[in-house]
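Assemble and predict.
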Amino acid sequence: MKIAVCVSQVPDTTTKVKIGADGKTIDPAGVTYIINPYDEFAVEAVLQLKEKHTGETVVVSVGKESNKEAIKKAFAMGIEKGILVKSDAEMDSYTVARNLADVLKEINPDMIIFGKQSIDYDDSQVGSLVAEMLGMPSITVVVGINLEGNKITCEREIEGGKEVVEASLPVAITAQRGLNNPRYPNLKGIMQAKSKPIEEKQPTYTENKTEILTMKLPHPKPKGKIVGTDVSAVPELVRLLREEAKVI
Amino acid sequence: MSKILAFVESRDNKLKNSGFETASTAVKIAGELGIEAEVLLIGSNVSSIASELNAYGVKKVLFAEDPKLEKYSTTAYSKILAETAKQINADIIILSATSMGKDMSPVVSAKLEAGLVSDCIEIKAGDGNITATRPVYAGKAFIDVKVNSAIKIFTLRPNVFKPVKSDGVTSETEKLNIALNDSDFSVQVKEVVISDEKLDVTEANVVVSGGRGLKGPENFHLVEELAKVLGGAAGASRAIVDAGWRPHSDQVGQTGKTVAPSLYIAVGISGAIQHLAGMSSSKCIVAINKDKDAPIFQVADYGIVGDAIEILPVLTEELKKVLSN
Ligand SMILES: Cc1cc2nc3c(=O)[nH]c(=O)nc-3n(C[C@H](O)[C@H](O)[C@H](O)COP(=O)(O)OP(=O)(O)OC[C@H]3O[C@@H](n4cnc5c(N)ncnc54)[C@H](O)[C@@H]3O)c2cc1C
Ligand SMILES: Nc1ncnc2c1ncn2[C@@H]1O[C@H](COP(=O)(O)O)[C@@H](O)[C@H]1O
């Protein structure tokens, strides 16, 4: 079985966002980049499937030279091969997906696993886009995978519960937190990741469907009211919620 | 721009609240652009509920009805939506950014080669233009986006676009004829497991979330009782999800759920940047925390600096009293 995983590189969750000089993207100065947290669940899922069912594994990323760090993280966890579609261009999800689909078509995997969402643009699009571009079905926000032969059963999270979904390979899956506990790379893995080659490819598609006009910071909130310091503040809080905020 | 198609979600032949938001927003935008809006329902017996959309000014409801469509299927539902858009020549498609809408919309985007803007919180339309505003970096910034492809798809963040009732029109209904074969059901929901009819944090109008300041899982019932009095849902910080007090599905924040209720009460939650990312667009925020310097107070409209374990039962009782009057 061939299993592919797609990873992106995103600002660390503690990043304080500053708007860049173009007014459309963030100022990268001082930002630490990490592998997209959901992609660690995706990588772990691939490794567990490989360990159970045997197969080849490959990681693909579209983006800058620095995306190699995310690929190396996947290597360190245990993924065997890596491909970077190298481009400095700002790409929207559709364009990223087109480039991924073109690379993955050649690999022809039985399964492709994505994160459910990149925590930069929070699009939740790329996994299902790639799947449809390759003509395979997709199952998103997955918290459980059970593969038997060609048949796959997944649990996906929905509002207030779960759906049990069935499909046949090939299939694309997007991983939600709760699917597994990503392993920590061991020293050997980290050392090996350093020297593993990463195949570089040129982008095949660069025309975006969407265009960012401006990026803005949220309006700062006016300072709130400290109603009190013990239970005696409760009646006043309730009054404010009813009469001032009018939310109850 | 020529026509809007809004997908209105239903489950078990009940329209979802988010469905009214999508329908009503479609009607509003269509008005601003001077074009027509049509609504699509998919399910096993949805024609029986189409009239519920009358009150929102929807003039035409299209429905795809088949026993096989009773449960959600990514492949079948997205094929129907894409085919319908083609049949009626819709060039704006609107869905809600619910788990169903988020699952279907990229598939439709790929089928129609249409640009997709996810999770919009505002849509501006007029003079033949349409632009959307959406949060990025978990709400730490916002972008205004336009779509350059001929067909444009938008998903709306639930609970943000309030449905507006307009003078009752009687919607025209039309059954669609879209051929479906077995391969269109290659992904199929077999079973839906609803966790004890619990209201989801993303759907609740009031969310009360607890954090590590509650000291232990044995005190979490205090949060649940307060949520219950307010008809809301109980959420959690990641710290207590990681500690196993609460399931991950209740986690609010950057790697949990994003909520925007009218009232968010944070109890014993410090207000880490990742938590704020999931709740800071709530309309009114109340914080109860014994540390006056906790960052949660920076986003709170009202705060009590004190011991949550003492305050919660008193607050719940007071609310019971006030709300029963
Ligand atoms: C990649 C990443 C993603 C993350 N995603 C999320 C996420 O999605 N959601 C999330 O919530 N966190 C997330 N976090 C974790 C986040 O950084 C914080 O660790 C977490 O939110 C802290 O939870 P807490 O506020 O319950 O606990 P603490 O930070 O320990 O805060 C407890 C608070 O309770 C107060 N307190 C103590 N006793 C009492 C009392 N008796 N009465 C009242 N108040 C009391 C304290 O003053 C303190 O402010 C993420 C972290 C990382 C690195
Ligand atoms: N530039 C990229 N390169 C490779 N994979 C990506 C890229 N962007 C997104 N993905 C994958 O698609 C998932 C969803 O991303 P998004 O649709 O951007 O929220 C991520 O978790 C990754 O698995």
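The helical segments of chain A are 37-53, 68-77, 93-107, 126-133, 187-195, 234-244.
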